[in-house]
Specification:
This protein is an alpha+beta fold and 81 residues long. It has one domain. It contains four helices and two strands; from the N terminus they run αβααβα. It has a two-stranded antiparallel ribbon. The relative contact order is 0.28.
């Protein structure tokens, strides 16, 4: 699956979650919009959040939980190309 960006176990993401969002109709199937509203527009941050949430844009239906890691977590584990 193409969700893996950090190769970290899912339980590790739970330690550094800043907030958990529930996708409403405006963000359904568009995690890029949700990430842009919380951080900034960045494909790598979106991919990491998708991995933390174990969701892809196709499976992000309304009502799904979407995890947003802390900026500290992102700065340590995000590999940008």
């Amino acid at each position: 699956m193409l969700l893996g960006t950090t190769q970290l176990p899912y339980s590790f993401f739970r330690l550094m979650i800043d907030t958990m969002s529930i996708a409403d109709e405006g963000y359904a199937y568009r995690p890029d919009r949700l990430v842009k509203s919380y951080y900034e527009e960045n494909f790598f941050i979106e991919a990491m959040c998708n991995e933390a949430s174990n969701l892809s844009p196709i499976s992000m239906a309304p009502g799904e939980h979407y995890l947003l890691p802390t900026r500290l977590f992102l700065s340590h584990f995000l590999e940008a190309g």
